[in-house]
Design a protein that fits this description.
With about 90 residues, this protein is mainly α. The chain has 2 domains: about 1-30, no CATH class; about 40-93, no CATH class. About 45% of the residues lie in helices and about 0% in strands. The chain is built from 4 helices and no strands. It is elongated and about 45 Å long. About 0% of the residues are buried. The model has no long low-confidence stretch (mean pLDDT about 75).
Length: about 90
């Protein structure tokens, strides 16, 4: 998976505006990112494969009853494709 820095990922130019000082209190630019104290799921993309991270995220969503349990491997593959296309459409990959 190809990583694109958020500054490159957004087409609205918000990061560029924040870097120029046109937008105040912008997370990651003029306002620091604060990691959650008790995150429900943490993925380490430097150490995990894309599939391992996705499996961890989907497992957490299922455990929290946010997503129904996968009934077959085909469902997991379909979710992976959908998640990847969603991330791509949001500019994350």
């Amino acid at each position: 998976m190809r990583y694109r820095h958020p500054h490159q990922a957004r087409s609205k130019g918000l990061y560029e505006k924040a870097l120029k000082g046109e937008i105040k209190n912008f997370t990651g630019v003029s306002d620091p990112y604060e990691a959650p104290a008790n995150a429900e799921v943490v993925v380490d993309t430097a150490q995990e494969t894309e599939e391992e991270s996705l499996r961890k995220i989907l497992g957490t969503l299922e455990a929290l009853a946010i997503s129904p349990p996968a009934t077959a491997a085909a469902t997991a593959t379909k979710r992976k494709r959908r998640s990847k296309s969603g991330c791509a459409s949001w500019g994350y990959i």
